[in-house]
Amino acid sequence: MLSSSSPPQPLQTGSSSFYTGFTRLCKGLSVILVLGHVLLQIFPSALPYVALIPSRTIPFAWNLITAGYIEQSLIGVAISTIGLLLFGKSLEPLWGSKEFLKFIIVVNLFTSICVFVTAIALYYITRQESYLYTPFSGFHGVLSGFLVGIKQILPDQELSLFVLKIKAKWMPTLVTLISIATSFFITDSVSYLPTLLFGIYMSWIYLRYFQKRPETSLKGDPSDDFSFSSFFPEFLRPILDPITSLFHWVFCGRRSVSSAELRGRLLDASPLPGSDSIEAARRRERGARALEQRLAAEKLSAMGKVEGTSHQSAAENV
């Protein structure tokens, strides 16, 4: 469940706080990612049993679960571990540990299912057996899903990407464009691109329609600020809105409905006062307020350390 009792930590802070504040759950999941990579280095023959290989998924159906936690390269496990720890500092305190873990499990499972179906479809279309025997694995599907969560909660927070500062609400779109662009120059892009793209889409589906919000007793986030077209520039949204309505009907089993109708369905036709824009604004304000509280606490802690060092130095001089 969502929780605002403890504040999230910022994604970009000073060096003194960069290595601190990681949650126990994220540390445990990081250990699993590292151990999974070590297992493959010691027993390379275990790869077909833990990675998603479409031709072997039946009867090895557990691969749909295990593949997301197996990194085949050292760079992959490093990026996944660091990303999990940093995103967890911001998302887990707001969502709560139970909901944070649920998000990871759901997004990982349904991303793997989509990758499996896509690989089978591509094989029947192209007749290339590589789609059947490519080992798909990695945590990057969930990492891309975390970007969607940051877009929902802290859309206006600026994140550093190399020398650029970009608002969090544009990060999923930017990562998607960069991944698609680089796929034309990387021969094995099929091993990561579907997982990354489906990770973004599945996380949006979950947060948009199914995540419970106890503060309003609603499921999902029907606000216009979190619609699928919000991932794209404004001039494209009038064109995309009819298409995304079709996606809602095909993939979600529901037509696009008004906010009042959606609230009425979820609360037995008893709509709540207010609007989705107000709810979205409250969510952003809560995230921004918690972020400011964390920054203030870290600043006070840093000042205390500096004063303690100064007193110690003065005592030594005396």
TrEMBL record:
Answer yes or no on keyword Ribosomal protein. no
Annotated membrane topology? Multi-pass membrane protein
Q: What is its main location?
A: membrane
Membrane-spanning segments: 29-52, 64-88, 100-125, 131-150, 170-186
**UniProt keyword Membrane present:** yes
Give GO terms for biological process: retrograde vesicle-mediated transport, Golgi to endoplasmic reticulum
Keywords from UniProt, A to Z, are:
Membrane, Transmembrane, Transmembrane helix
Cellular component, GO, one term: Golgi apparatus
- Where is the signal peptide, in residue numbers? none
Query: Where is the protein found, in the record's own terms?
Result: Membrane
Pfam families, alphabetically? DUF1751
Q: What is this protein called?
A: Eukaryotic integral membrane protein (DUF1751)
Question: Native species of this protein?
Answer: Musa troglodytarum
